[in-house]
Structure formats: C-alpha cells, structure tokens
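Lecture 7 notes: from sequence to structure.
We start with the chain below.
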Amino acid sequence: MASAGLYPELDGTALTQFVTALEGGGTSTLSPALAEEAAQARGQVEFFTVRVPVDPDASGGSTELDGAGWQPKGAGPFPCVVMPAPWTDLGWLTYAAQATQIARRGYVVLAYTPRGFGKSGGEVDVAGPYDVRDGSAVIDFLLANLPAADPSRIGFLGDSYGSGISLLVAANDPRVKVVGALSTWGSLFEAFYENGTSHTASVDALRGAARNARLSERTRWAFDQMQNGDAVTGELLQWAEERSPRNEIDRLDRPDLAITFSHAWHETLFPVNQTLELFNRLSVPAKRIDLSIGDHSSPEMTGLIGLPNRIWNATHRWFDYHLKGLGELEESTVVSEIMWSKALESRADWEEATGTPVRFHLTGPAAGGTDGGLADKPQNGWSTAVSTGTDTPATVADAIIKTGYAEMAGKPKVYPTAAISRTAAAVWTSEPLTEPAKVRGIPSLRLTFQPSAANATFIAHLFDAAPDGNASIITHAPFTTQDATPGEPVVAEIQLQAAGYDVPAGHRLMLVLDTQDPFYGDANETDSKITFSSPEGNPSHLDVPLA
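Predicted structure tokens for the same chain:
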C-alpha cells in the first residue's frame, strides 16, 4: 500500500506536471525522460480525466471515483488495462507515467483512485466488498464510454493496494483475463499477524500514510484491533479473510486467467511467505512471480517515475502476450534476484527454485563461552535463558521501506554481532563455511522453550556473519505464545520468511533469538524470562534450504 510519504522518489509535483503536459503540451518543467514520454504520447494517445459513478457505501450519498483515461489514436478495438491506485493520497496520479507507457503500447488504460482516497468519494474499505464492486463498475464505465475498448480483452494491473484489489476483482468478475499483482498480499490476516505476533509497525505505517484518507468506521476498528496487539477475535479474522485473495482460489483458478506477481524478499508490510502460498496454490495454466532485493514496492518504484524498470518491463511483456498475442511466453514461472549478487535465476516452478533442506542442530555453548553452535549432530540436555524487555541490535530493519532502498543500492544494513547482548538474546553460530551456501527457499526452526510467564514473544533472525564480526540479515520471523503454562515446555514450529541469498565461503550462519523488535507487538510480561533448550527425543534444529 505505497504512499508518497513512504517513497521520496514518488514526486507528486513532477507527476502533476507530467499530466499537465499530456493535456496541453509544455514540457520545460519535466525531467528529460518524462518530457520525451509526454511529447511522444501526445501524438499517439488521447488523455482525459473521468469521474466514475459507483454504489454508495455506509456513509451514504452518491459516490464517484476519481480517474483518468488513455486511449490510443485509431479505430481499435484495443485491449484494456484497468489500474486501481496504491494506498496514497496521490491516487491514480501515481500511475501517470506508467499508464502512459502502457497506452503507447496499444492499450486503452483507465486508472482510478479507490474510494476514500484523494478526490474519490466514499470511505476506505481496504479491498473489501465495496472495492470489489467498484472494480466491476469501472469496467462497465470503460466499456460504455470508450468505444475503442475491446470487451473480450481486459486486464487489471496494480501496485500494492491496487494489486490486492485487482486480484479480488478478477476473482469476482470473469471479464478480467489478465492480472498484474505487484507487491501484493495473499492473506491479509497473515500479513498483519505472523505466528501469533502482530505487525504493529506495518499497521502504524499504513495508518500514517492514510492520515488524510476517509477511513470507514469498520476500517478504523480493524486497525485499532491490530495496533493493540490483543488476542485475535473471530470478527477480526473474518474481516481480514474477506479481503484475502487466498480465499478466492477457486474463483481465481480459471483456465482463461493469467496472473503475474512481484514481491521483495525483505518485504516488511506484506511478508513474502503468504504471497508465495497464494502463488503455489494457484493452478492456473499461466502464472509467474518475480522476487527481488528490496522492500515493499521499492523494486517497482523507478518504473512509477517513468524510468526503465525490470519488473514493469516483464509485466508489459506478460500483458502483451496474454491480451495481444505478441511475444513468447516465458518457460520460467519463478524469477529470483539473489542477495547480494543481484544475479537473476529463472526456474520452472517454486519447487525447482527451492534448495534441499540441510539440518543444523542447536547445541549448547562450549565451556566458558556464551554462544551455542549450529552443528550436524544433535546435542541434548543444554538450556540457555534470556531476559525479556530489552531490544538488541538484532532487528528486522532500520525502517520500513527505507532499509530496502539501501539494500537495492548494494548497502545492506550492517549488524555488529558483538554488540548483541547475550543476556537479552540467545545466539548460535555455525563453523565457517568451506564453500558458498546458496539459501533458496523457506528456512524452518523447531525449538523448545519455557516461558516464565503466560505470554511470550521472541524474534528469530538468521544472519550471514562475516569473519570481522559484522553480519547481514538473511531472513527472520517472530513468534508469540499466549496463555501458556509458566515453566512448562512449548514446542515451536516456525517458518522463517523465504530467502534467495548467497552466503560466501568463510562466513558463518548465525541464529539470534531476542525478545523485542520495533516492528512487532510485544506480549512479554515485565521481568520475565524465556529458556531455550533441546530435550532428549525432541532436539531443537534449524533447517536451511541450500541449492
């Protein structure tokens, strides 16, 4: 759900000037790239703004959505692309440069601002039933008012918030034949609650980005519930699942629907696993996913400001093939940009893209040491305790989105492992690797722990630790248990987020478990402890998929 406030690159003034140039010429205020785009577009497409009437919501009164259209000059008929805007006050303006490029490729394009944002009426429904019906109403409007539009060739394309709306509209309107879902979600619930832990920073960021939007009472209630981090209610679960494309699998699995996804490995708003689950459960004949270095929407951002972009270029080719019959369909359905080499790996499916799990057993610290080991054989009978309530340098990221931009620039966050308090965190390290380790897929952790209180939260971080003691994060996952019996063992089965990462030879794998992170809700009670162990017959271990 991208916001101009979260993305400095998304310059609303520049996009407004670009639209002004489309309407009346004059490109002196534009960058060279946008000036050339606008000048060429004026000879090829017609641009116009629209107001799309839709059903009123609970707030009452007539409701119209703010939008804009691009129509190629000529008789047509032309295939159509509908673009619901991201989670931003800029609304459809976000797509001004990208929609122009698509229209110049021979498409009728209609971009619109979802209800509750910008100049659209109504209240924010968070990809709920009103938003789904709005998508169909936009199709009706397009076909009724643009005679060059081909009703048999319609696609939906969106980034972030617009991507989830696109998937849900496609599930409910068979007129949609192609979907581009960039930085999307599969399960809204699992995006905000992972292993019983609330993603409070994500909800805070989304709410901050929507501070000028008109949130419905139901939306405010849902955000309050998620920010409070209370135990999940059935009502909240129902709200989230109603807005989850994963629950529409049966209706998305149409033989005439083609879907392309993109996602970032270190996504902090909608972690990648829940989107991968949607991708892998789909059995549509044509599907594709592109996984990149970065964070939410950042891999696509240069395309939104009119510059060449790998994700958008691949999406253009996808629509050209499925709506225009041009080009060739790529044999690979999974394309991965590997951290930090930026090498691209193309594989036929997720199974082929995933490595073979290699088991590392958690062992106790050596005599006089503090850190346990990650070994090839189990060691039972040890235990190590950490105190809750203190954060450590082992964190998910410095900031939502911004850390991802640094990663894209080849400057991943540096973690000084010696500064991680061994009383506030438990640490296990492997021996130095004798050859590079290619992490491909979803690492998993099986762990026994004893909380001293009924509620406990910890965060598992998997690091690539260099010989100098500094580390880069490979992946992570939080875990929370509530209403446990204090002092009784709890067995946790934790899937960390998927990763495509190359660990150099000579480096070590490092697992760090601490109890606080500014990204997550904290269920720990004051002055409590968590004791990790590896009991006989049930050894604690970390499985890392290595190619």
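Points to note: The CA atoms of residues 413 and 472 lie 6 Å apart. The radius of gyration is 24 Å.
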